[in-house]
Structures are given as C-alpha cells and as structure tokens.
Amino acid sequence: MTDKTDIILIINGRAHAISVEPRKTLVDAIRDDCGQTGTHIGCEHGICGTCTIILDGDAVRSCLMFAVQADGRHIRTVEGLADGETLHPLQQAFITHHGLQCGFCTPGFLMLAVNALEHNPNIGDDELLDVLASNLCRCTGYQNIIKAVRAARDEMRGAKAT
Amino acid sequence: MSHGGNAHGYPTPPPSSARRVLGHAVARIEDRPLVTGRGRYAGDINFPHQLHMRIVRSPNAHGKILSVDASAALAMPGVLAVWTNADIAELSPIDFRADKNATGIREFRQPALAQTYVRYIGDPVAAVFADDPYVAEDAAEQVALAIEALPVVMSASDPPGEFEPGRSSEAIVLHHSFGDVEAAFRNAHAVIELDLQTGRHSGVPLETRGAIGVYDAAKDLLELHGAAKIPHRNRETLCRMLNRAPSSLHLHESHVGGGFGIRGELYPEDVLVLVAAMRFERPVKWIEDRREHLMCANQGREQRHRARIAVDRDGHILGIEDEIFHDQGAYIRTHGVNVPNRTMCMMTGAYKVPAYRAKARVRLTNKTPAATYRAPGRYESTFVRSRLMDAVAAKLGIDPVEVRRRNLITAQEMPYVIAFDEPGVEALEFDSGDFPALLEKALKAFGWDKLQADLKRRRAAGELVGAGVAIFMEESGRGPSDNAKIKVDPDGTVELITGGASLGQGFETVMAQICAEALGVDYRRVRVIHGQTDLIDHGIGAHAARATVLTGGAVHVTATMVRDKALEFASELLQTPADDLDIVDGMVMRRDTKGGPSIALGDLAKRLAPGSKLLRGRDPQLAAHGWYNTDHTVFPYGVHLAVACVDRDTGRVAVERFMVAYDVGRAVNPLLIEGQLVGGCVQGLGGALSEEFVYDEAGEPLSATFADYLMPTVHDVPDVEVLLTEDAPSPRHPLGLKGAGEGGINGAGGVIASAIDDALQMSGAITRLPVTPQRIRDLLRR
Ligand code: FES
Ligand code: FES
Fold first, then answer.
1. Which of A18, B470, B573, B651 supports an S-S bond with B386, CB 3.0-4.6 Å?
2. Do B35 and A103 touch (CB under 8 A)?
C-alpha cells in the first residue's frame, strides 16, 4: 500500500521529481508534492471541473487520474498562464468583466477555456457555451465568465490578425 | 471617537457624478492573485509536522452507539490516535452564538462527537489522527461501529418522535403576530388556504470546508486557520467552549471559496482540530471531501406552510395566518432558531397587512442539521407570500400585478413600522423605499405589457410559456457596531484593518473604495485586511449582508478621521486654512488653485512619526481607529420578473428571461453588486428548479454527489437582467448604503412558481419547490 513510485511531472515546463503511491491522484500530487496549489479540488468525483489542467494539449480533470499516469508528461496549470508580469488575455478578461468572485473555480475555468481557444481560436458562441457547461461555478451565475471568455477570444483573434 | 447612532440626521450623500471612486464600477483589487493561482484557500495552508484528521461518520440515521472499536485503525502505521466522545467528555456541545431565544433549545445542540446517540447519516462519531491524509482515510474505514437502529423521523410535518428518551423532537414552537386576526378572517370577502413546501437545499460553495488548528505551547496561543464569515464571533463561542481568554485564541481567514451563509459557521470539526492541536502539540489539518460536505455542512430552506389569507372584494389583504413546520434536521446549530424567526417576521413583505399570526413548529428530523443559507427565511417567506398573492388574483379575477399594486406599502408611509405582539420580538422599521415605483420601473424595463401579448400568442400556438412576478423585502446591516483601523505608511500606502470577512464578494475592493473616497487616495493603494482576530479585537464578519453597511460605515468614519488629521497638520505645514485644502490622489493641496503648495500623505505620515516637533502634544502617526454604531437595520427591496417555458415532453423548465430589480440605497460598486445579484439569482434558480437534498425513508441521503445534487450550469441560466436603482438611500447610514448580497436569490422561488403556473395556465399548480421535471410531468398528467 505504501510502496512509492518515482515519477517526473513536468509542470509549466519545470520537472518535478517526486515519489508517490500509485493510488495518489494527479491533483493531489500537483498540489501537495509539487506545491502548485493554484489547481483546486471541488468534488474529487469528476463533475465540477475545478481541477482542470492541460495535459499534453488536452483539458483533463486531474482528480480523475493517478499521478503515475502523468509520469513524464507535460502539464499546464494556472500558474503557467501569465508571461511574467503580463497576464494572459483570458486572465485579464476575467478581471475586466468581473468573471470571478471567490476565485475557487477560476483556475479550472481558465484552463478549460484556454485549451478550447487554443484548439479553435474561432470557436463560436454556442460551442463555447458547450465547453463552459462542463465546469461549475457557484458564485457568478456564469454570465460574466461567458462575457470574459468571449472577449478574450475576440481579442486573441484580433491580435493574431494584425 | 464614535459616530453614527440613531442618526437620522445624516446629510444626503452626493450623487454618483460627484463621487470620485464610490459608486463606480472599478475592477477588483483581489483578482490578480486569484487568476494567477496564488490564492490561499484552506487546503493550501500547511504547517510543518502537521497531522491530518479524518472523521468517522454514522452510517445510521438514528441509533444508539453500542461500541466503537478502533483497534484495527490504531494498529496501522502512521495513525496517532482515534478519539470518541469519551476523549472529549469535558467539551460542551457546539454552542449557539448569542441567541436570545436559546432557552429551551440548548438540549438540541450537537456534540463535537456523538454521545450515546447518532441522529443523521454523517453524524461525527470518531476522529482519526494520522501523519498522512490517505492513511487517515484508510484508518477511518477500519473503525468498527456497532449501532442499534432506532426509528427515524423524516418529515417535520409527521407527528414528532423522540430526540432522546422522554424528549420530543418538536424542540420549540415560536409565535409572531399582530392585529386582530379573528376579525380579519371573520369579515373577509374571501379566504384562501394553501399547503406549500420549500425543498431542502443549501449554499454548496465550490470549496469544501477546511480547518487547521495550530497550538504554540510556548506562548499558550491557539490558532484556527481556514476560518471564515464571522471569525470574531466564532472566537467568542470558542473561548466559551474551550475556556480560554480571547487574547489566547485567534482565528485567521485566508481566501474562502464561497460562503452563502453556511461556510464559516462553527462546526464540530473546527472545535476538534483545536482541541487536538493542543493535546498533541502538533498542527492538525482537516479538509472535508465533497460527499461529507453534502451530508454534513448546514442545509436549509425545508419548510411546510399551511398558510391562509383573508381579503376584501378588491383584493386588499385583511389578514394572513401561517403554520410552519420547520425541518431542523438532527440538531440545532449555531444560529439557534433564527431561520424560522426570520421566516415569520419577513412574511408580510412589502405589503400592508393589518393582521397576522404565525406559528413555527421547529422540529428535529434525522437529516443533516439545517441553518442559514443566503436570504434565510426570506426565500421561503417570499415563496409563500407570492403564492398567496397569485391565489388571491386568481380567485378574485384580478391581474396578479394589480393585486400586488393594491397592497404595497407606499413611499408616503415611510418609515413603516411592523411591531409584533410577542415580547422580545424585534419590530421591523422599514427605513425608506418606494416599492410601487420600483415595481413600475421593473415592469417597464421588462416590457411587461407587450410581453403578455407575446406570451398569449405563443400559448395559443401551443407553447407552455408564462411570466411571473415576486416582490420582496430584504434586511441588512443589523447593528450594533463595527470598527476599523487605518494607517498611512510613509510611502503613501494605506493600511485598512477591518473586522469584516470576505467570502469572495469583493469585500476588499468595496472597503478600499469607501476608504479611498473619504481619504482622497487611489483605491488600489489601500491594503485591506479582514478576518484576523489578532489585528483587531472586534468584528462583525460577513453575514446578513452586514459587511458593506456596517463595516463600510466604520471605514467611512475612520477614513474621515484620518482625513481630518491630515488636513489639520497639512494646514499648519502649508500655512493654509484646512477648509481650503483637499486631498487628491494622495496629495494634500489647495482646493482652488492648481500648482500651489502641496504635500503627499506619505510625507505627512513621515512628519508625524513619534518625536516629531510638529506634534506638539498630539498623537503621532497618520492613523485612526473609529467606530460606527447603529441600532438599526436597513431594508433594501426588490422585484423579480421571469419568463419560464415548460417542455411538454420532458417536463423541463427553461427560464427564458429573468430580471432582478433592486434598490440598494447607494451602490458602492455597481459591477460587484450586479455580480452578487446575478450569482444569487442563479443559486435561487437552482433551488427553484433542480437542487434538492433527498433522503430515502431510512434516512439515507440520496444527494451526496454533484451528479445527484444538481446545481445550475452555463446551460441552465438565462442572461439575468439587472435593474439597479438608488431611489431610496438609507437615512440611517452615513453613505445611504443598504446591502446587496441576498437580493438576487430572495424572490427566485416565488417568481418561478408564478411563471410556471402561468405557463401551464394552471393557477396554484406549483405548491412545492424545487419544480423538478418529474413534478411537472406529474402535473401535466393530471
Ligand atoms: S475536483 Fe475534479 S472534477 Fe471536481
Ligand atoms: S467564483 Fe466562486 S465558484 Fe466561481
């Protein structure tokens, strides 16, 4: 039960060599073993999306995976979104449009939406709603989250065009 | 120094155009750390050498504990101890915070660990302490409980059972009344009687609860981290329970992932980590999992009402009578009987009701304990009142809006006092408001009349679509006092220490705005501190929408004191009368001329260091500690309008439109108020349509995951329209402020019920919340 496995998690480009029990969830490893506490846990049963990270280019729920399954793979978390002091356009849009209150769901929504926008910069409003419907927020009523993500999409698209 | 009091003499606050930062939709100062992953929530707080606690919970809804066998758990490596009630026998049950009606209900408080009886599934029976959270969880599963099952009571309107041998599960019966109810019903043109129910739901913040106890034996100092909502009041309770002086027990709030009335109340686990930290002399961390949260954190709302209304032939209300069965769950928690009391006292809402009598039967059931959830007692009473008004309209053939119009209290009648016959029941004194005006504004902005024609057309074409209205009163800023400390640093940074708390509503920004407005600094230069009992001795925290009103009042008073001090010294330094000086962007300068002599607040602070010659006997530092005292509550009010469309096949209700019209007195930050209103509204929709804690007949909770407890997602919410008005600033507050935290949720149940009735063209069809697809299908089959 307490046999540990040595693995490497590459989080936001930095390798973390850690030793975990095979049953340790990825989110626990990211938070407790690698100290990256920006990724949150809201349910641990795969529904709320608070724990969403980007794993090798896909948004995944890190509470539904074991850390050992992510050995050697590239993980992106909320801590890696900003470029130094410059916020990612989506982070800025969340601030501008008051897309967060308590902020607990925010890292999950940011990673979910960043992934969607990276996969499809021209994603339509309806498709965007389908994406955002997979995470829960209990504070905002979603309206401002939707506004923020649409604004960031438009801005990122504009930036690319110029 | 103290300001305020029974202060009806406050000057009218300036219009928003004359305000510098107050009243403007500025961005929040708390956001940057939160969008970059630097928040520090309870789960993110760790201390070296900490232990992890895991609770062993009752699998029975009611039973007698025969034995607890922890030997297998204790044999596991990494397990330090397993406690049962015997290990904390000296500890009192979780106490009420000051509740005047506490006599007669103390026997129903919850022990930190069950003693002799278990009373709901999830009731803490034992606590496991281990080096690692995974080990603690494994060990908890090895603790063997032998429990003899006892009969359960699962409904508050069933005959009461026994809480313990010889003690009825009807804890107390409460009364509120005024006027001659007999005469009202005797002389009525019509009497309508309804049997209504509000479902059991709750705040369900996205962050579960968490608590970390730390004990410093060298200083004999005990700390609770992960505190929220009301750290100061919880400290009082904990000091009482643990027999400690307030200066030796401190609570620390960090980031909190939503509160909604339920987070931050004192729970068994909070007390256990503190006792364990002292006994083991090691930090003890407890983080709840979601299943535990849905079985153990406060739930609320579940009531059954047998309500009657008497009206004259024109639909004027003559009297209301109500018998309430309040489902309290297994224990009475920290609020005592606050929720049934608020339900009764807010029942008549914004209407003129000459006679009223309510009786609340507070009954224990074998379910998770109930307590306050956002707009406690108001969501419930607005639902009941709205149903009654709709029933009156239907019975007399009067338009539902018109019947409401006829009964509203008018602006000319302010202040409007509702006094109750019962000794000790506080009167409501509505401070200001123009309810009819808000109703008309809302109807106009919603396009109500045109909408009616559209809906008629759509219904004629076969759609099940309709509209509803609900009107409600809120209450906020109940006294008595709050305080704030402000200090200007030599670099011009302003430190503002409050006894408030933040559950994510934007408290820091709002307080910074109020401080900045009075002091004349950039609000982003204000560092706002909250929820730290070691930095300020008193605080009211964040409940009952008090923060903006009371703490905001204290910040205004204190910032004004600092401003006065700054102007006094600047006047001497700049050789200019203080009246000719202003503070703009942190610079003290002449009001009339640009480019005259000036001094930065930070420089002024430097010149006021201890020993400065400038002081001449006056206190050093550019700082102040001020109080705001009031014995009044302020009453915001609102109107909800909604359009609902029912899917004939699935029974699903789509809310097509929703408007929250709300008079907030004065808005400190309209962006944040809108955020609160929309967020609250969506929570209210959850409670109206999908969220429900369901139990089977043996007391097994069937809603213990997010797959079963259905909160709204992006797909379930309309674009909520907000109409924020400032028509009735409170004459009882220096800035005219009223609270905004609960105005989005209050009428959501009532208005949705109205709209669905209209959609189905079945008056009075909805008698129970939530209106799930199943219930709609049942209605359609009838
Ligand atoms: S914590 Fe992973 S989905 Fe909720
Ligand atoms: S901002 Fe609190 S849960 Fe989304």
1. B470
2. yes
Distance, in Å, from the CA atom of B96 to the CA atom of B104, rounded to the nearest integer, reads 12
Could you tell me which of A121, A63, A51 has the C-alpha nearest to residue A90?
A: A121
C-beta of A51 in contact with ligand 1 (< 6 A)? yes
Better pLDDT: A3 or B348: B348
Smallest CA–CA distance, residue B297 to chain A, in Å, is 14
Q: Which domain holds residue A31?
A: 5-80
Instruction: State which residues of chain B have pLDDT below 50.
Output: 1-11, 100
Which of B577, B606, B629 delimits the end of a domain?
B629
Contact B34 A136 (CB under 8 A): no
Query: Would the CB atoms of B675 and A21 count as touching at under 8 Å?
Result: no
End-to-end CA distance of chain B: 67
Q: What are phi and psi of B149, to 5 degrees?
A: -70, 140
pTM for the model:
0.96
C-alpha–C-alpha distance, residues B662 and B660, integer Å: 6
Q: State the nearest Cα–Cα gap between A145 and chain B, in angstroms.
A: 9
Q: Which domain holds residue B228?
A: 42-150+208-255+263-296
Name which of B40, B206, B505 is nearest A50 (Cβ-Cβ). Answer: B206
As a whole number of angstroms, the distance between CA B102 and CA B118 comes to: 23
Ligand 1 geometric centre to CA of A62 (Å): 7
Tens-place pLDDT, residues A139-153: 999 999 999 999 999
ipTM: 0.97
Percent of chain B whose predicted confidence (pLDDT) is above 70: 96
Q: Specify the length of chain A in residues.
A: 162
Query: Per the structure block, which two tokens stand in for B240?
Result: 């009482």
